[in-house]
Amino acid sequence: MGAAHAADPRPGLAERREHGGRAPAWGDWLATWLPGWQDLLRLGIGLTQAALAWVGSAAPWIVWTVWGLGCAALLGIAGLLSLLLKLALPKPAPAPAGTA
User: Fold this and answer.
1) What is the pLDDT of residues 14-62, one digit of tens each?
2) Number of structural domains, the chain?
């Protein structure tokens, strides 16, 4: 099927009439435009199941790692902000020598 079908819509309209005026089923449409779509769908489902199984088995490690990195980032940011405050605030004037 070349680009000629775009210039002449009659074959598509005839196909639509064959289905009682409705569009053909999704499977027929996909088979026309994407041959082998069922194999791709099976592959996608298999990969999704494998990824979810891995995430399910690795969930405790993932949670602890994310929690630890978040705590380290929080402590690091707190330390940087404390340092910025220390550097930004004016230093108190020394007390006169005779008042102590």
Assistant:
1) 665 555 656 557 777 777 888 888 898 899 999 999 999 998 899 999 9
2) 1
Beta-carbon contacts of residue 6 (< 8 Å; ≥ 6 apart): none
Is residue 83 in some structural domain? yes
| Cα pseudo-dihedral 41, 43, 45, 47, rounded to 10 | -150
Distance CA 69, CA 16 (A): 58
Three-class HEC string of 29-90: HHHHHCCCHHHHHHHHHHHHHHHHHHHHHHHHHHHHHHHHHHHHHHHHHHHHHHHHHHHHCC
Query: Phi/psi of residue 20, each to 5°?
Result: 75, 30
Task: Evaluate the CA torsion angle 33, 37, 40, 45 in order and state its sign.
Answer: positive
Quick check: is 39 in a domain?
A: yes
